Amino acid sequence: MDWTREINEAVQRIAGHIQVTPVMQSQGFGLDFPIEMKLEQLQHTGSFKARGAFNTLLSQDVPSAGLVAASGGNHGAAVGYAAHQLGHKARIYVPEMAGPAKIALIKNTGADLQVVPGAYANAMEQAQAYEQQTGAGQVHAYDAPSTVAGQGSCFAEWQAQGLEADTVIIAVGGGGLIAGAMAWFQGAKKIVAVEPETSCALHMALQAGAPVDVEVSGVAANALGARRIGSICFDLARTQDLTSLTVSDDAITAAQTALWRERRLLVEPAGATALAALTSGAYRPARGEKVAVLLCGGNIAPDPMG
Amino acid sequence: MDWTREINEAVQRIAGHIQVTPVMQSQGFGLDFPIEMKLEQLQHTGSFKARGAFNTLLSQDVPSAGLVAASGGNHGAAVGYAAHQLGHKARIYVPEMAGPAKIALIKNTGADLQVVPGAYANAMEQAQAYEQQTGAGQVHAYDAPSTVAGQGSCFAEWQAQGLEADTVIIAVGGGGLIAGAMAWFQGAKKIVAVEPETSCALHMALQAGAPVDVEVSGVAANALGARRIGSICFDLARTQDLTSLTVSDDAITAAQTALWRERRLLVEPAGATALAALTSGAYRPARGEKVAVLLCGGNIAPDPMG
Q1: Domain B50-138 is found in CATH 3.40.50.1100
Q2: Which of B20, B27, B305 is nearest residue A256 as measured by Cβ atoms?
Q3: What is the pLDDT of residue B241?
């Protein structure tokens, strides 16, 4: 796959539909070096997922039966929003564990929402059944080329905004976002993958030498709790010098609190997971190494303006 | 006063002490035109006040008795933070009406905090008495040239970041921030001053032809509830073509909710007051008129990570 071309095409395709998100350089968080940050939690529907959703919907024919997706929350909101903006109907299956704030977020997009008992895998089963029954187009949350190319646009945009870092630190769930980063940078920057200890499908896959099923739980599970890493991500990770590490739930919550207390950036636990690698000391940059952190989601629960 | 020189000097003086805050272009909020926004609520201590505080402390000798300030919250936090960073002691008088979240914000800077029954004017009386007794340096919240020049740095910075708008919309309390805008732009951009109906010292002064005492109340009172507009602001406003208007508390709360719901920007009521002028229709741009909105404070209560 010519990822550079795919991502450049995605950038053109979704321009005007997605929010160009701001970047900043910040000191603080108990660190003795500055960090470049991209505030992707300010994206439409509060996460980077809108990029992949628009790129998917705009790059293929949408069946008359509309669209279907399974989601822990953020992807469903993105598909619901993109479908509404583009005039398609969308059915979204969401597991109960997504919680009321994310369920409300999807509902507010106007999507046909189905809450499923259990976890993400249960919602995915039902989405697949609906796809087979109706011919609706499945929008995969992370393991489809159009999704990965859409998420890759985030890094093309960041580079155009003057990204200087040697190293880009990114949270990982199913791997769509970090696959987009690997696909865009192609080794030109060091990429650090950060997962919760309690939901680390990429870390376990790299140890096992192949994607394996993992248990998922913890504060970031509704965003990062993929039971198995995507194959696109895994294949890219195997061929690149990816650094994979994990952080505790306490470290994630501490980073989330620091982002609000010190910088008035309110993010969900998944959105603070990349920073947690620095603030917990799980990743220590070399002397002079310039680091960047992507804040990827802001759909906190409970809704502070609820 | 050569304001251009004063502000350029302030920019140099406070560089490295303040946060360069990001800017973005955003659609939404029920408006059919895009808005440029500067996210000044991401400044140290959560409001633009850190600019004036650092410029004041760095442009004059600090007495051995240290510093004193009266504040509804944001200025006190800024003075406390700047004093701590520069190695000075600071006593801050805060009125009870500031509320527990802003009182905690000041306390966390390490300042010597004094909570005073009543409103801002009561805190100011005690700050003045302390100044006379001890010789501590008073840091005025809005009506001192060093404060205004510091706040003006926000607009010099925005211009350097590529501000394109014809019109800049700014919330007004005591008038230090908008005085900085008038002092910097010198008529080169249209400036719209927005105050809550329940706290509108500038609006009443312009109607009366002179600063007058006003009653203050409402959702933004602890940030915008100045009883009398600053004389520096008033003198600049009289000589410039300033548009002054007011918005209701409901309009402020609706704008604050929209900023979170649509863009994941969590601001305090004062921080949403400028946008409220657009979303309520109090200010309607002409066809083709490009507008910019400053988000000036993010110290929401209760603390969402509290």
Answers
A1: yes
A2: B305
A3: 82
